[in-house]
């Protein structure tokens, strides 16, 4: 600042010849160091030479300032450009067809395999609820690490090969651009629509994690036998409020529950809280107190509309037809029962809170910017691929 002030003050006093001589004297050392001037003394330099060399000095001086400023500011700007966080339509420039491709693949797969939509809905819960929405769920086991897919909490998850189908379709159009984490989230969004649920605008820009989180799954995913207070606390840590939790559990409106997860309510004695009319059906579907793990024995979560995401689930649990302990507690606990009643009466109310909860879940601690990676194959981290 002092140099600038002195230069400005002297510049006002200098006229034509003196101005360039002054600039030359300031820049003489710099010019000599760059061999612009080698051995000439200042006494033998003419006015035209002062002006020419002074002009060169000024240009070099300004160039140096600009270059230095650019280098100094570049990291800050680069960092901002690299990490925009989650935004709507993140791939609009890099892969504008991405969301359309995913949507079409989800529709095609649903026509061939109806249960894929249930899988997409479960995936977003099982992945995003465990520390980060980073597609760690999709990683296969390695010699050193267990896959989240193989933990007890993930029992019954399937159709991962069809998620690979979606990834392959996206890769053909935009190689190495769209993350598996975003494909997981968007397939859930479009799967919800396939099941008759609301369309939920979701942000994108996630990147993929490089490691399984199997060792912490049970710390984050509540078990179906845990108290409703524990369930509320676990979701509350992600920013999902009580009506949001009640709405999320409305996903039990579709899909099925494996007998191994509910026989404790049937054997050795039937849980007296269960609706007697529903018990007969459950016993028919789960005839063995110790189900054969190789046999696919299950009960549909909602006998009335098993393929439709709707508020029939809430009417069922108010009639004690919930299959899991958590379903029963949801309908009887004083913290959640008022919302169950509202959702049983009003599907729009259910959809509103369901959409909010899914949005919050999908934005749970994502990897963005330069964190993580864009996997080439969803089941394998790039370093192992």
Automatic annotation (TrEMBL):
Q: Which residues of this UniProt protein bind heme b? A: 252
Site note Transition state stabilizer applies to 122
The identity of this protein, by name, is Peroxidase
Q: Coiled-coil segments, which residues?
A: none
Outline the extent of the Plant heme peroxidase family profile domain: 85-382
Active-site residues (renumbered): 126 (proton acceptor)
EC number(s) recorded for this UniProt protein: 1.11.1.7
Annotated residues that bind substrate are located at: 222
The record's disulfide annotation reads: 95-174, 128-133, 180-378, 259-286
Instruction: Quote the catalytic activity from the record.
Output: 2 a phenolic donor + H2O2 = 2 a phenolic radical donor + 2 H2O
- Keyword Disulfide bond annotated: yes
Q: Where does Ca(2+) 2 bind?
A: 302, 305, 310
